[in-house]
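Re: zinc ion structure - here you go.
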Amino acid sequence: MNKIPQVIARQLLLLIAFSLPSFAWNDLGHLTVAYVAYQQLKPETRHRVDELLKLNPEYAIWLTELPAGISDEDKRMMVFMIAATWSDRIKDNSQYHMDGSHNGNRPPNDATASLNIGYTDFAMHKYWHFIDNPFSQDGTLLLATPTPNAQTQIDAFRAVLALDSPDLLKSYDLAWLLHLVGDVHQPLHCVARFSQAQKKGDDGGNGVKVCVPQNDVNKTCPEIRLHAFWDDALGISNSPKAAIQTGKSLLAANTTLVVKVNTAVWIAEGFQLAKTKAYQPPIGPGKGSFALTLAYRKAAGALARKQVALAGARLANLLNSELK
Ligand SMILES: [Zn+2]
């Protein structure tokens, strides 16, 4: 292929990538959650996660992505951070297939949806990344929350990690867990808004458009999905170094919240935060587009920083006390 079509193809790919619904904190969010967690892991837990992550089929690739000249300890930490993005990375890996309906975001109606057999399962399981707890502001009938979802899977993986299960299975479950604990601390991963305009729900804000006013002369306001705005609220980067900087700049999480260990409680908090912070003015009823005020964007950024610090501390607690 000559250069110009290659450039066009790449831009088309980017366009497609940005126009598809996104259902995850971006890489910076997950890398930072894992960085925060790693700082709080006991030495024996660090050793155990290191052993397990070596069994991931992408482990050798991760090593090639690390900056040159770093210490062995930093290598192990960055592998742990990159591992937290593995569940998103398989969405771009042609070895994996999209399962379920609704662009892979609704579980298939059979036992494959909650299969937990390890790396021989090449399904993307995109519907494991969130839980659509329904609410409505206009009395629209609510549909039941599909299962399996982030809550059922976090609990399933925690159970396996606490038992004498084979290391290969634990490796798969650990990689998923590193990711999903981050995901459920993004409030829009815990919610679906039902309204007269969206009687089947808005997929955690993926069905709501917002726009971010620019300071340019034309006063443009580029549109994005509400969900994507919150995924990016911490900042945008896929570099472990940027995540380390972000992680170092976070305040320690509130200790009374950190000690809460129940997955359902984390998700109930996220659901409340979504209703009280995300679906608030200038977000109105319906699909938008809604122009985000500076106050809304600042509050979202502050909440994202709190939630990432909290997710990291809870992830560390969980691994220190439950991983065998
Ligand atoms: Zn995710």
